[in-house]
Structure formats: structure tokens, C-alpha cells
Amino acid sequence: MVSVNIASLSLTHASSRFQFPFSRLRFHFTQVLSPPDSSHSAKCQKAMGTPSSSVTTPLSAWWNNMSLSGVYYPSISTSTPSTSNSWKNSPFGFAKGASTPQQSTVPPSALSAGYTEDITVAGALLKDKINGLVDSLMRRASVNAGCGYGEDGRIAMMVDKVYLVDRLDAHENLLGTVHVTTTHIIFRAEDATKELWLATGLIASVERGTLTAAGCILVIRCKHFQVITLLISRDKSCQDLYETLQRASKPVSVNVSELLAFENREPVEEARWRRLDWNAEMTRQGVTQSQWSQSSINEGYTVCDTYPDKLWFPTAASTSVLLGSCKFRSRGRLPVLTYFHRQTGAALCRCAQPLTGFSARCVEDEKLMELIGKANPNSDNLFLVDTRPRVNAMVNKVQGKGFEDEKNYSNMRFHFFDIENIHVMRASQARLLDAVTKFRDVADYWKTLESSGWLKHVRSVAECSLFLAESISRGTSCVVHCSDGWDRTSQVVSMCQLLLDPFYRTIRGFQILIEKDWLGFGHKFDDRCGHVGALNDEAAKEISPIFSQWLDCVWQIMQQKPRAFQFNERYLIEMHEHVYSCQFGTFVGNCDKDRRDLNVSKRTKSLWSWMDCRHDDYMNPFYSPTAHVALLDLDTRAARFNVWTGMYNRFDGGIHPRERLEDVTMAAMEHVGVLESHVAQLRVRLAELRSQKQNLKNTRSSTPTTMVDSGMSSATDELKTLGLTDPLGAVGSPAPSLERATSQESGVMDASLYCPEEMLTKYSLKWQSLRGVDRCSAPGCRGEFSSTIERRIHCHRCGMIFCRRCLKNTADERERVCEKCKADE
């Protein structure tokens, strides 16, 4: 008879103050590379057991048919983090010589419906372990030797004795264990000095090296440009992990509703989900009903399913003109208003290429273009900007598309700009990443960077955007298109508005701009970002870094105009990460119709709401709202465009400055603000004491002499000992120690006159420096800051640096303090 004793198993997160029991395998998705918050959680998908061997025995048959609902639920530990031994006593394998852990169960009545998925995962891991035991009893070679994972290889997998290699040799290689779940990859060092969490949705590619004497190299390249290099000694374990990561990064399913964002279990505030109100935005721009009016032609997405349902056209345009132009444009994307310049009356419109072929024309489309020009009271001229190279536009004529014939459109001038297509941009970024991640020789770096052409492409987008901004500021309306009007068109029209309108350079305005010209007008985020698995080569060719390139353009402008933007570099980088992570529903779907059909505003969390909770992380300390209005003096010379190392080398230690100027300035301003607030509180307190002193003097002067001997003299003596001769004049000098007097015979003395010593010393005059800080100061956390971009936050009282999870706001929401300072209140 074989007796199996299964322990209460838990995974201790190195940078948190609590344990993650594997019996409740929950993985949070608030942070991708740092230990997750408890405020945003998503349960794992249901797990299944490993396949049984082809040889069937009574014991194995019983186990394979066992109901998971009968497995008792291990207790949840809330003690302090355990040592590394608790990790070894995990469901993936017991350490050699480890002591037998205590068994802990709860009655079956505790197995409520809310824990069904947790129990399923716990049962699957338990089943994996006993399957290995059955294999050993039957003397069969385990199909998962060296690893532990679920039936289809996606649920849970463990590979031990893995080295995390630092490719820049800035740090020593770390020996640890890799765990793969349905949502995350987790690496934990054996000495518990490092723990790395990576959402599987961020995996771009997995490369396997050749087997050497040291082992086999596995390189994981991520969509947010992190490169993880693992050295695995066993070839079979490396191959198993490689295949598992391949399946995780390229899921077979193309069902968007299976993305991590839809695993949300928390209530969603639908009212705060969106930022854009079309009517409010057009009113803010100053759109007048006399020239432009809203049309219901696309209500219910009947005319164009990649456009929003609210569109603005010239008031004089009839429905027949709009329908005729719609049929003449690719994908039905006819010219519509996206921005109105209040000062000049010029309009910025966008559309897709016309279906001209070699000779076709459309009277309705020509009429609509004429009406767009006439809607500008200051000029009838119209610029039509084609963002494609002329050669590409000519090739499209063969396919029955092409570009407008200038002779058929009145008062219109045509302009081409050489912005390449999505395929060129994809190859260009791949070469850029080769330059910034692979080459150490300076000559090879510059050669590869030049051959990538990335900075040239970024410059082309900036030049086209500047041309549009200058034209509109001079009073000339512009119509912009590329091929289908959702890639290059979105880049240049949104960049043009960023240059013209300071509202879009604020945190909220930037979100509205993205919702309007990227999400609203149908940039295909699912296809371009590869949110779902590509089933064929054609789908893989749709992936392209169009939005990443636009964020790069924004950063280039921020380097030239640092005071013009309310947000900082961290804002762009974290937004880029979560565009690809699929943890929020904001960037899920190819168009507004897709998001409405998926009901994302009710089923998923909004990225904007998540960023609202971290608003101070994204503030630019150098921002001046009145410093710039229109950024028309942008320098577009090639020398002004640089590689964005904060984005592409974000996780490379030793490359970035040890202190970021923005963070140092923000911390200094915050420190000064805390001290000034404290000084103001002391001034108020001193004024109160002065007033109370005066009241006591008045009381003394009006008291009969016979009362002085009965105790009033003692109050006078106490005031002298307090040194309150001139309270307000003593602010600049060291404050006296205000201690409670020992004698109050008469009881006339007011207790509010006494101020404890802690009130004067509870705020630290010197805060911890940001330089060299790579871990949270909380003893129970010690969480690692994954990169220089991740914000280090000071406690307002002790001045030490903590991660966001270890700081709490006070009751009045005026201070942010650590747990120790909060407990000392």
C-alpha cells in the first residue's frame, strides 16, 4: 500500500509581503514586469491534467477518472514571506531532503463557486505530481521528465537549474527556476534576489540556440523590447520550454475574446471607460453649424464599418454626394472632418485612396472636395496630401486604385510624401533592434542603424506633419490619405494636431487624440500588434510597428520642446507596453465597431482609468502651459533625430543614467511641497498659540488679585517656560521643545497649548537619493525595480524610497506614507 502525503503548497513572491498559494493560482495583470497589485487581478484559465500513459492500470484508471471537485482545498497562508525552502516545496517538485510539510485542509462546504477555477488549477497541479508518482511505481519513463506541466503544455510548466544571462555582463548570471502559466512566465532566482514576471502576450519571438558544453541558449524577445536570455543545461528541457513558449506567444485560437483583458473579474466603471465625447470635442475645437454639421449617414456603421458612427461633413454636402464619394473611396472611407482650426477656419480631413485606376472619376467625390475647400471662409484652396511615395501610388493604379487627378478637382494642389508602407517599417524596426541589442562594436552599430533607415522614416512622418500644420496655420484646408487611411494617415493627422493644439499635449488631451484618430478612425490594433495568433503568412504580414513609430515621433518632439508637454517619457513607454500586453480593453479590436461588438467597456478594464491612479508618475516637472502654443519651429534636420534608448534599451542596465533628470526634479519639487505644507501647518499652530496666550493675558488682567495666589501664577510661569514671547518671529530659528508642564494646580491652563515633539520632527529634511536604488525599502517587500523607467516613490515622512504597493495615502489624501510611518501615527 502506497501512502501519499500532499503538502500545503505556496509560492512566495520575492517583492511582496504575502504569499501566492499555488492552490489559488491567481495572476494579476496590473504590472507586467513587476510583482502585481491585488487591485487588478485575473484568474488563471481552467487547467487539465497530464496525459496518462498508454498502459492502463487500476490505479491510473482511478486517477484519470477522479473528480477534481473532491479534492480538498489547502488553507491560505497570510504569514510573512517564506524562505527559499518554501519555493522548493512547490507542486512542481520537492527539494531533496526537504522536510515533509504539514497537511492543511478545509471542509468541502468551503468550496464555493467563487473558487471553482482555483480548485481546478490546484487539482491539475496535484494530478501532475501524482501522475509522476504513478509513472515511477509502474517503472515507466515520465513523458515530462525534468518538467511539470498541464495536459496541453500551456497550463503550468517548470524547468529548474536555469541561468538568467545578462547579455551586457553588467550583472552576474543568476541560477533559478522558470515557471510558465497560461498568463505569465516567472523566473525566480534560487537565492531569492530576483523575480521576473512577464505576460505571455508580450512575447514576440522565441529563439533556440545550438547545444554546447554549457547547455542550450533560449532567447525570448518581447514586444516591449525586453530580451530575456536563458541558459538551460538539459537539451530536452530546453526543447520542451521552447515549444511551450512558442504556443504561448502564438496561440492557435484567433478568438479575440480569449485575450487576457477579458479575464477581468472586477466591476468596471463604464462612465470612466472612454475619454472621447465626439460632440464635446467638436464644440471645443470651435466647429460651427454654418460650415460643418454632423451626419447620421454612418449610424449603425452601415456605410463604413471602420469609421465611427458620428461624422462631420460640410453643411452643403447632400446625402447623395456623400454616398457617391463613399463608393469611390477604398473601404468606403470618404473624406471626413477630424480637426477644425478655430483661428484660421481651416479644416483637416482624412480619407482613403480613390478607386481611380487609370481613368475613372467620380462627380460626387469631386463635388465633396470642392465643398470642403469652400467651407473655409478664408481660402478656397485645398491641399490634398498623399503620404505614400509616388511609385507606390502608381503601382496601386494597376489594382484599380491610385490617386486623384489634379485636373478633375478645382482649386486643389497635390503633394506626395515618401512615407513607406507597413512592410518596410516592420523590416526597419527589426534592423534597429539588431543594432541596439546585438552589436557591441561601434562601427557595426552605426552601420546597422544606418541600414535600418528607422530614423529616416521617423523624420519623414515629422516632415509631413509639419507641412500640414504650417498649411492649416496659414489658413489652407488639407485632405490626407494613404492607401486605406488607417496607418500613415493616422500618424500624420494626429501629429499635425499635436503641433497645432496645446490641449492635445496634456495627459487627458493626448488620450482623446488617440481615441479620436487612432481608435475612432479604425487603426487595426489587433492586426498591427499581433494580439491574436496569425494562422498564415498573410496574417503575419499585417503586423507592423505603426503606433510605436508614432510614439517615437512624439518623443522626438518632446526632446526639442520639453516644456510643451504635460506628460513625460514614462507616459509614452508604459502606454506602448500596454498596447501590446492585452491586459486592458482600450486597444483591443480593429475599429470602434469591433470594440462595441465585444462590449469591451463592460467586460474589460480601461487603460486610461489605470493610468489615472498613477497620474503623478507621468507629470513633466518642466511643463509650462503658456510657453508654447503652436510648435511650428520644429527642427527636422537629420541630426536632431536620435535613437530612443529609453524605449529600445529600457531593460539594459548600465546604459541609462543612474538618475533621470525628470525624476530627480519631480522628487525635489515634491519634497519642497511637503516641507512647505508642514511649515504652513506650524505657522497656523503658532498663530493659535499666540492667540491663546493673548487670551490668557486678558484673563489675568481681569482677575482679582486674590485669585492669583490660588493658581493663576502657575499658568504664567508655564507660559514663560514655553518661550512664547514671539511665536511667529521664531519660525526661522530652531523651534523650542514644547513639552507638557508638570504643574497645573488651578486647571486654568489649556491643554491645546502643548505641542508634542513629534510634530516638529516627523518630516525628514533629507530624502533618500534616487541614485543606485534598485529595490523597495520595505523589509517585507524588497521588490526590484525592473528598469530606470519604473518610478521610485518617496515616503513623505521618513524620506525613504518604496514601490507603489508599499505606500498608502493618509486619511486626508494629503500625504503618501509607508506602513511604518503610518503605524507610528
Q: What key phrases describe this protein's structure?
A:
825 residues, alpha+beta, seven-stranded antiparallel beta sheet, five-stranded mixed beta sheet, 25 helices, 35% helix, 13% strand, zinc ion binding
What is this entry, summarized?
By secondary structure, the chain is an alpha+beta fold. Helices cover 35% and strands 13% of the residues. The strands form 7 sheets. The protein has a 7-stranded antiparallel β-sheet, covered by helices on one side. The chain has a 5-stranded mixed β-sheet with strand order 14-15-18-16-17, with helices on both faces.
Q: Categorize the overall geometry.
A: globular
The helical percent reads 25-40%
Largest sheet: 7 strands, antiparallel
Query: Quick check: average pLDDT?
Result: 77
Give, in spatial order, the strands making up the sheet with the most strands. Answer: 8-7-6-5-11-10-9
Describe what this molecule looks like in 3D.
- This protein has 825 residues and is α+β, with helices and mostly antiparallel strands.
- It is built from 25 helices and 22 strands.
- A 7-stranded antiparallel β-sheet has the order 8-7-6-5-11-10-9, with helices on one face.
- The active site is at residue 482.
- It is found in: Membrane.
- One of its GO terms (molecular function) is zinc ion binding.
Topology:
Layout: E1 10-12, E2 19-21, E3 26-28, E4 41-43, H1 58-64, H2 84-88, H3 116-137, E5 156-165, E6 174-181, E7 184-189, E8 195-199, E9 203-211, E10 216-222, E11 227-232, H4 235-249, H5 278-285, E12 292-295, E13 311-314, H6 319-328, E14 336-340, E15 347-350, H7 363-374, E16 382-386, H8 390-398, E17 412-416, H9 422-437, H10 442-452, H11 454-473, E18 477-481, H12 488-500, H13 507-520, H14 525-529, H15 537-540, H16 546-560, H17 569-581, H18 592-598, H19 600-603, H20 607-612, H21 645-648, H22 661-701, H23 705-722, H24 758-761, E19 793-794, E20 801-802, E21 807-809, E22 816-818, H25 819-823
Parallel strand pairs: 15-18, 16-17, 16-18
Antiparallel strand pairs: 1-2, 3-4, 5-6, 5-11, 6-7, 7-8, 9-10, 10-11, 12-13, 14-15, 19-20, 21-22
Helix pairs in contact: 6-7, 9-10, 11-12, 11-16, 12-13, 16-17
